[in-house]
Amino acid sequence: MTAVELEEENKELTRQYKELLRISYRTLSDDDKKMIRKAFEVAVDAHKDQRRKSGEAYVFHPLAVARIVASEIGMDATSIAAALLHDVVEDTSYTLDDLEDLFGPTVARIVDGLTKISNLKKHRDVSLQAENFRKMLLTINDDVRVIIIKIADRLHNMQTMDSMRQDKQVKIASETLYIYAPLAHRIGLYNIKTELEDLGLKYTEPEVFKDISRKMKETKEQQDQYIEEFTNAVKQSLDKEALDYDIKGRPKSIYSIRRKMLKQNIPFDQVYDKFAIRIIYKSTPENEKFLAWKIYSIITDHFRPNPTRLRDWISSPKSTGYEALHITVMGLKGRWVEVQIRSDRMNEIAEKGYAAHYKYKQGTTEESEEDRTLDQWLNRLQEALEGNETNAIEFVEQFKLNLYNKEIFVFTPQGDLKSLPKAATPLDFAFSIHTEIGMHTRGARVNGKLVPLSHELKSGDQVEIITSEHARPNNNWLDYATTARARAKIKSSLKDEKKTIAEDGKVILTRKLRSQKITLDEGVINEMVIYFKLKTSLDLFYRVGIGTIDNKMIKDYAASRSNAFVSFFKNKIRKPPVAEHVDKDEITDKYDLLVFGRDEQKLDYTLAPCCNPIPGDKVFGFTTVSEGIRVHKQNCPNALSLQSNYAYRIIPAKWIDSSAQDFQAELELTGIDTLGLVNHVTREISEHMHVNMRNLNFTTNDGVFNGKITVIVKNKEHLRRLIENLKKINGIDKVIRL
Question: Assuming Cys at both sites, which of 22, 275, 404, 666 could form a disulfide with 738, CB separation 3.0 to 4.6 Å?
Answer without folding.
Answer: 666
